[in-house]
Design brief:
- It is a single chain.
- The protein is an alpha/beta fold and 243 residues long.
- The protein is built from ten helices and seven strands.
- The protein has a domain of 169 residues: Rossmann fold (3-Layer(aba) Sandwich).
- A seven-stranded mixed β-sheet has the order 3-2-1-4-5-7-6, with helices on both faces.
- It binds S-adenosyl-L-homocysteine.
- The site of S-adenosyl-L-homocysteine has 18 residues, from strand 2 and helix 6.
Length: 243
Amino acid sequence: MSFDRELFDATLLEGLHAWPLEDLGSKVPQMGQFAELVVRANEELNLTRIVEPQEMAVKNFLDSLSILLLDWPQKLRCLDLGTGAGFPGVPLAVARENWQWVLLDSLRKKLAFLEKAAGELRLPNVTTLHARAEDAGRDTGQREQYDLVVSRAVASLPTLLELATPLVKIGGVFAAYKGGSVDHELQSAGRAIRLLQLDLERVFPLQLPGGFGERTILLFRKIGPTPSAYPRRAGIPAKRPLE
Ligand code: SAH
């Protein structure tokens, strides 16, 4: 499939200016290169439904970058949980060279693609981790190791909080990328928020440029250690969510 790279680059640049994240303008070529790799690999790997250039620029790239509208420290140790085709992790790794990224997924073929892409894009700040989040969260080398964990389109909020927050350092943040309406999900997550020692620090609603829809970033601060019972064994957080 041919990919209109000029249209992608122009849409991304326009969106960066609109937000405003125009300091990332110099990163557009590297992002475009990654978009092309995704579209090419998608034919075999079924990585994303989004392949049209404008939609790719807004719904995958700008959406991934949206947390940069908030203030963050210069250096962070980060993990993208259920990274799939590399969203939001790869655009963020391109945008912030001083943030170290671990891209976690349970599907090895997606990580093989991402390792190759990170090599081609010359991204020394990206590594991959092949694991279920439930297992990583109990591994002493991973548990409570990250300043920032992000995740998009992986699970409903109570499940996601159980998967993600064991990986976050005490005092660190989990950023959940969600759709426009989050009231229902937030209501269902009250128990998980309490049990997992979280504070909902910020609900950040945003509009994707070009009328591509509404999104919400939920920022959870980890205010105490995750009880040792969590995460429960693989599959249980989704089957019996902490509702
Ligand atoms: N974040 C990407 C991909 C979403 S698809 C995006 O927004 O485009 C969800 C991904 O999460 C899949 O690649 C799936 O393999 C992974 N995933 C789901 N549950 C997981 C778990 N418990 N542990 C690790 N990866 C998981």
